[in-house]
Amino acid sequence: MPDMEYKKATVGAIKRQIRVLNWSVVLILYALLLLIVRFLYVVLDYIPTSSMVAILSIVAGLVVVGTYLANSASRNAVKKIDEYSRKLSTLLTTTRDIRAIVYGDVLLDNIVDSLLKITEADAGAILLAEKDGLVFKVVKGNAGRNLSGVSIPKSHGIVGWVVDNSSAVRVDNVKNDSRFDPEVDKITDHEISSLLCVPLKLSSGTIGALTLVNRKNSAFTSEDEDLISYFADQAAISIDRAKFYEDQKIFEIHLTDILIDVLDNIITEKRGHLRRVARYSLLMAHAMNLSDDVKKRLYRASLLHDIGFLKLRPDETLSKEDYKAHSQIAYEMLQPINFYADIAPIILYHHERYDGNGYPSGLKGEAIPLESRIIAIAEAFDAMVSKDSYKCTGKVIDEDVQSAICGFHNALEELKNNAGTQFDAELIEVFVKNIDEDDIDEK
Question: What percentage of the chain exceeds 70 in pLDDT?
């Protein structure tokens, strides 16, 4: 990481300069000692022996004291630089890490943990502005009872002042600060002495505050304030981004539910089909120990795999070409929407056949996305076991099959008969081994 390497190089250069300065002072002291000894040697015949010894003792003592003070100052400076370097290293690492976190609760926990590590505070909290109050989102350390979710008035105490004025506050003894409200101690069930509170600022305004109380062994320093203020600016951006991501996910969930309900109401023969396919697909994903990311993507794609039918007229008999167009239509509907873009290709290819005779692109074998191959099996199975399905004719398997293929065991046999041609044989084996008659849900 470039900024970390730059920090290490800078700290190393400062340490070297301090050591050079320290040895320079020592050399100067010893040079002065030699000059004084040389001078005393010249005037030796004119100074009593006792005076000579006293002068030399004083000079030697001054040199020793000077050397000790120089070394002590050097060690303290290096120690302070090491401590600052540690804090800065933690800050840089944490700042990098929180940029990658998109889940709000995980992000807030990570931020407070890092603050406690950097400052060695007894307790820390994040409060976010909501309506007319400041809500404790995360509280960690020795902060008494659990305050998560507790709200205080927006202009309450030092924290309220920080949010109102968008300015940091560092206090060695809060009881001597006119802005401190004793009721805070009662709320937190924790006696507060020293405090550092910095605002979480965005260009649109202050969204909350980071609060640290009771630094161990000493009060908070100006360095702590500078570091935490910088960190708070980065944290505010990450919190705002995480909120946007979570709002987007909520919007996606609601929009998906709306689209599914609309399709269920327009094409009654497919009512419940999307959710059942999603459930069967997840059953296979769990059996295959697929990653959580793949499972989430598969589930979302399963829920919307037939959404292209929304653009086809339900009151007209669909031609073969119309039917085949629905996956391409779904792709064109979803691909421009950023939170659906990752599942659009899965939906596009869910009617490809393993032998290459599917549509729309004639993909073959493992060139077909894994999630698409899974959905193809789940959809075919649901079409065969759902009595009200418009596909309960066998045509989902082969256009030439005329006899009905309904029922659990018949459906499994038909899937196995088409393993290696229409479907991935290995996935068929997984599905057959893990599906049970109790897993079928007609709702």
Answer: 67
